[in-house]
Design goal:
elongated, binds magnesium ion, binds 4-amino-1,4-dioxobutan-2-aminium adenosine-5'-monophosphate, catalytic activity, acting on a protein, eight-stranded mixed β-sheet, Asparagine--tRNA ligase
């Protein structure tokens, strides 16, 4: 009986006979030899079946196996410098687990992305999609490690919430036993409460935006990591962000070289992602755009072309700081020197990937918070608990939200955010 091994660990078994439990990804045959491309979830390997070296029924089976049949392939691990993996399998036996029906939808020719998204449940088996989701997993873990190692406590906010936080226009409403409730847009307000209990916390979960945007950067359900820190001010908040992003990128570079190569990612651009990151004020960014002949006035929000232009001036992500207060949510602390702008920043990724982080110092003064809420026509009742945080030991504090999928898209260098999450929810898609 052979050892079951995973393809990613195959190098340890050179010269030994092993068995791989997986699926047939692709096949080529030429008379007396069949090449089986086998995947097992951990990787892809080529199995070489030579007619005179296997039983005739095994050879016949190999010629017949359909794409995506589940099979157990046994053979001897051999070095093969021509393959990406560096090894191949000299096949001795193949056992069928479940033959796939003829006509597998994702044949190995080119398909349009919309078609592939309809078959996402199968598309995720292919090498590029597999690499993206593995890098996503690595990024997930690197985020958790970063915060855990730096003394942050993970706090899960509720997904069902009674109020809005980022604005009322893009909420998904639900009926909560006869009361109006919403799927959470952000866990921030709850993270602020937890920061007063634990000092440094982060939440990491799904968030929902009923935005009718059909862009390469918007999902209606996405994952956001949201740290919140007591006694941390605006400038210190930026340092934590650049350290986090650098940690994530460097971890992916160390641990996911093969996946980045599969995606043909130019890693020289990622190598440069180390602190400090450049900072530019909103006002200076507006001037930069105007000098480049964009029609843009102070107070306008940046669109994708503006963000891309600003980002193109830098090799690293760039912080745009001190946005006009009226553009941003009620909770952002005004700048003491100029209360028309806030002590907050968006972090814009290089290469046109747009905003990956939004953050700020939060208002900690009770009267100022109440004034801002009034200006934004927010009812006090549902926010009473949030307001109370300013009554009992309020301190300056800051936090930010990093969109996981936009970060994955940038690090992977792929053009559309829908490929960065296992099953995307977009304007026209709730299937599969
Ligand atoms: O800038 P946003 O809306 O900020 C907040 O929600 C704050 N409450 C976060 C905080 O300070 N705790 O969203 C933060 C990030 C964006 O920078 C972006 O990366 C991502 O979340 N994001 C989206 N990602 C995918 N699809 C969407 N529709 C997104 N909207 C925001
Ligand atoms: Mg934002």
């Amino acid at each position: 009986m052979n050892k079951y091994v995973s393809i990613e660990k195959i190098s340890r078994f050179e010269g030994e006979e092993v068995s791989i439990r997986g699926w047939l990804f692709n096949k080529r045959s030429s008379g007396k030899i069949v090449f089986l491309q086998v995947r097992d979830g951990s990787g892809f390997i080529q199995g070489v079946v030579i007619k005179k070296e296997v039983d005739s029924d095994v050879f016949d089976l190999c010629k017949e196996i359909t794409q995506e049949s589940s099979i157990i392939v046994s053979g001897i691990v051999q070095k093969d410098d021509r393959s990406k993996l560096g090894f191949e399998l000299l096949v001795k036996n193949v056992a069928m687990v479940s033959p796939a029906e003829e006509g597998y939808p994702i044949s190995l020719k080119e398909h349009g992305t919309d078609f592939l998204m309809d078959y996402r449940h199968l598309w995720m088996r292919t090498p590029k999609q597999n690499a993206i989701l593995r890098i996503r997993d690595e990024i997930n873990l690197s985020i958790r490690n970063y915060f855990h190692d730096n003394g942050f406590v993970l706090i899960e906010p509720p997904v069902i919430t009674p109020t809005s936080c980022e604005g009322t226009t893009d909420l998904f409403g639900i009926d909560y036993f006869g009361e109006d409730a919403y799927l959470s847009q952000t866990g921030q307000l709850y993270a602020e409460a937890a920061a007063m209990a634990f000092g440094k916390v982060y939440s990491f979960g799904p968030t929902f935006r009923a935005e009718k945007s059909k862009t390469r950067k918007h999902l209606n359900e996405f994952w956001m990591v949201e740290p919140e820190m007591a006694y941390v001010t605006f400038e210190e908040n930026l340092v934590i962000q650049e350290n986090l992003i650098s940690h994530i990128v460097q971890t992916v570079l160390s641990n996911r070289r093969q996946e980045l190569a599969e995606l043909e990612r130019d890693t020289s651009l990622l190598e440069k992602i180390k602190p400090p990151f450049p900072r530019i004020t909103y006002t200076d960014a507006v001037e930069m755009l105007q000098n480049a002949d964009f029609e843009f006035t102070w107070g306008d929000d940046f669109g994708a072309p503006h963000e891309s232009y600003i980002a193109s001036k830098y090799e690293k992500p760039v912080f745009i700081t001190h946005f006009p207060a009226e553009m941003k949510p009620f909770y952002m602390e005004p700048c003491p020197e100029n209360p028309n702008v806030i002590l907050g920043a968006d972090l814009i990724a290089p290469e046109g990937y747009g905003e990956i982080i939004g953050g700020s110092q939060r208002i900690h003064d009770l009267d100022l918070l109440l004034k801002k809420m009034k200006e934004d026509n927010l009812p006090e009742d549902p926010y009473q608990w949030y307001i109370e945080l300013r009554k009992y030991g309020s301190v300056p504090h800051s936090g930010f939200g990093m969109g996981l999928e936009r970060t994955v898209a940038w690090i992977c260098g792929i053009d559309h955010i829908r490929q960065t999450i296992p099953f995307a929810r977009t304007l026209n898609r709730i299937y599969p």
